[in-house]
């Protein structure tokens, strides 16, 4: 992986072990001015052990998150369209050697009906996910494109999906162009581990066994014109400090070559997966405390990059991580293709077990109780505020005003259409509280949008 200099990472991990507290304070203060940290500075924070400095790191992460994104948290649901896969990743239930799971690839009609189920719950953003093997000998990209179209075609009342992000296998530049033209938002691909030897051990078979092809996919996606890219590492495969510096090195490479870093970073932790022995005993299991540290340090290192948390994490952990810098969370997920509407007995194999089984309504209620504004917004994508254009707004902290306004508008829509009585009451109070904090100009603008929502218009944004 030419993007990753392992020797540099190892040297940083060795040389930054014992930094004095004044140096640590200087770095924390730099991040509070919303400046991106160097790899060395991030390595110093990763080595911090003492409780006092850790508290400062956590407090700074919350400060930076609020300064850039405000109090909003974006919600999405994954939609697994197929669990067929030619690869044999040791940690994943979809691996080809796993004969224990029921396989299923959804047809366009089934994808549309799953999307309608999600729309009926109040979802507006979907992350489409699948294994690397299209059904019926179809090419991967054609299957993906057909699926994206089916998702956008779904409609429940006036509600439609606003943004489809995609997590799928690497493609060629031409195929990425095809995928982009289907109207996707972010293209997401996780390197899993940035440690070459571990990568080769974990991916013994299929196209995914080539680490260069996987990491180069990010460059190819950029070259194809997809400028919102999501990267990630699967925590538990190798040392968590190394993986975090791997992620940050990868970002350095993207910034150097394409002038823009990733739109989002994902930090999945390995969860138990049926038929994937390794997932039950991850070789480098990361503790809850170490994991919180990783999220906080990522927030400080690249303050303007979104951090995604999925339902792999349990409710308690997710609620804690939101305050440390997570900006997007999934809700009410199911990792089995067709699983949203199928009965338990009929369900095809899921990818891994979920830590958070709460309904979208419960998650919205909890966010409101913690004073976070649940958001179903996709305005940046609609207004073409993607890639560098998004970063220009995000870097000086200007996206915050737009995010909060859009969060309030989309929350009003959600409360009117989908929320339980209890969540409606708490939600309308929250909207009133935030409305009262705005200046007259913003209040007038919000009143204007709310009058549209009242008259039944949906999908408004600034
Ligand atoms: N097959 C494509 C790929 O591997 O890139 C895309 C979809 S794959 C289902 C999405 C991600 O799930 C993987 O990149 C991996 O990080 C994650 N994953 C796989 N097994 C997991 C497990 N047992 N626990 C948590 N996450 C897992
Ligand atoms: Fe297939 Fe992706 Fe699972 Fe690997 S992680 S087995 S490529 S679905």
Written account of the structure:
There is one protein chain. By secondary structure, the protein is α/β, with parallel strands linked by helices. Helices cover 49% and strands 10% of the residues. The protein has 19 helices and 9 strands. It has helices spanning 6-15, 21-32, 39-46, 51-69, 108-121, 140-153, 173-181, 196-202, 211-223, 240-258, 277-280, 288-301, 315-323, 360-369, 379-382, 387-394, 399-417, 421-437, 440-454; strands at residues 72-82, 125-130, 163-167, 187-192, 229-233, 264-266, 306-309, 328-330, 373-375. β1, α5 and β2 (125-130) form a beta-alpha-beta unit. The structure holds S-adenosylmethionine and iron/sulfur cluster (SF4). Residues 91-92, 129, 131-132, 167-169, 189-190, 192, 234, 268, 270-271, 273, 279, 312, 351-352 line the site of S-adenosylmethionine.
